[in-house]
Structure formats: C-alpha cells, structure tokens
Task: structure prediction
Amino acid sequence: MNSPGISAQELYIRARDQAFLKTLFFSGDHGSDLGNVKTPEILRFPSDDGFLFNHIWEETLREGASSIFDIRRHPNPAICPVTAIETYGTICDELVIDLSECYLFRPTTPQGDVVNKPLSSSTAQQRLKMYVKEAHLDEGETLHSLRFGCTIALAFSGAQLADVMSHVGWKNGQTALYYMKLGEVLRQGSSSLLLSSASEEASTLFSQYTSVDSLKNFICAFPSCPSGVKRSSSASSQI
Result:
C-alpha cells in the first residue's frame, strides 16, 4: 500500500482487503455476511475504542434477522481491525469514493470503477489465497479458517463457552466445546505442561506443538499403531 508506483485501483483493493480480513478474524463472522454489511449499520463507540455492527440479513430465509457484533482496538496497529477500517476510510476519501449509505466493502469492475454491490465471499477468498501465496504461507487456508482461528484465540484466552458461541454466532455448542477443550489441553500452564516440567526432554517436545489449529507435527502415542495410521504427519487436519 505504501509503494509509490501503486495504482489507485490497487490501493483501494488492498486497503479494502486488509480491512475486510482483519475484521473477519476479530468478529468471527461469516465472509458472506460481512461482505453484505452496509455503512449505516456501523456505529462508533463513544470512547472511540471500536465499532458496533448491527447487520440486518436480507436473505429470504432469514429476512429481518439481525446480527450484532463489535470489534475493539488492538494495541498493535498492524493487526488492529479498527485501524484497518479507518485507514480504508481515509484512502476512500483521498480517492473520492463515497462510503455513506452503501456497502462497506465493495468490488471493482475490470475498468477500476468501485460499484455499490456487496463484496462476494468468492472474491474475498481469491484475495486471501493470493496474499498467503505471496507470503509463502499457503496451507489451504480459507475465509472459514479465520472464523475458526477467532474461536481458537478466544478459547486460549480463557473465554467462557457461552461467550464464544455468542461472539461467533453459533447455536450448537459442540464445535465450540471442541476448541474450548483444545485450548484447555494445550494452553500454557496446563496440567500436562506442569507434569512435564520435571523433564527437560518433555518440555522440549511440548514446545514443538506450535500449529495448534491444524494439529501439525502430532505423532502416534504408541509404537503399535493400527494399520494405516501414520506415526508422524506433516499434513494439516482440517477441523
């Protein structure tokens, strides 16, 4: 975005994308729902520490239903969704793109015009894929990965089940329970870590479990694994 040679169209798209993806993670929302958010549905907190979204679904089966969520400022501006949206708004002002009474995140035409239509989840998915490939981090991530990542972060932060379900809009607690248990088992200070503190080797092994959301590097616990079960794996397990 700071490149002196960037075009106006690419500047808008990258500002939109970083605001969309950061908001998607911190809100735990569906990509398709976030793409349909309109600017009149967004309020700024009186303390200026976040935004309140009051989104009214317009799909036939959910007509009239409302999704209320908020995002707050993060101390690190590089990942803060509020800062990202404010930067996006500033760039739109500079490019004379009116954000009043319209969809917040909008697509562009091949000619570079910004149209007042919702940003589709397929377009957002393509953009996410492009960014992770550019960063050489592509492991099959999708927009839904950000939603689950939000859940994992909440679980590891010690959030209660009801709070996790409310934040991401889940009605069934089974999926949330899975991540709550995952966070309980693998968090710093867990029972298994305390037990391993007497063994330097065990502590070293525990520190290798870094990819918690994909369960990478986990191995079979017993030498006599059933037929077809690998003792080690480098492949991600999608949850």
User: Anything to note?
Assistant: The radius of gyration is 21 Å. The CA atoms of residues 25 and 146 lie 5 Å apart.
